[in-house]
Model the fold of this input.
Amino acid sequence: MAQIYDSDYNSSDYFFLTNYSDVLKAGKNSFTVNPTPYLVPDSPIYIKAYDINGNEIRSHEVKPQNAKYPEETNTGQLYCIHIPEDTINGVGRLLS
Done:
């Protein structure tokens, strides 16, 4: 497994996010991670989210139980971040 660190906010060399809001609110927030041809097909992508104080925020890959709605979108994988109500406002980090 390789860890990719891409500090360029606008970079889409390895993957890009869609359906993603720049501001995450308390509760569930979802987005899609779309791989580019630079990633090996079917490579796992792990996401970690951190608040302004560096505390990890619960996030996970979405795998719906209903087979009618597969977990993969047309282009990528759906992820969800759960922001607790008591999270301090500020700039956090999303790592993969």
About this structure: Residues 30-95 form one domain. Residues 39 and 59 are 22 Å apart (CA to CA). The chain has no helices and seven strands. Residues 65-73 have pLDDT under 50 and may be disordered.
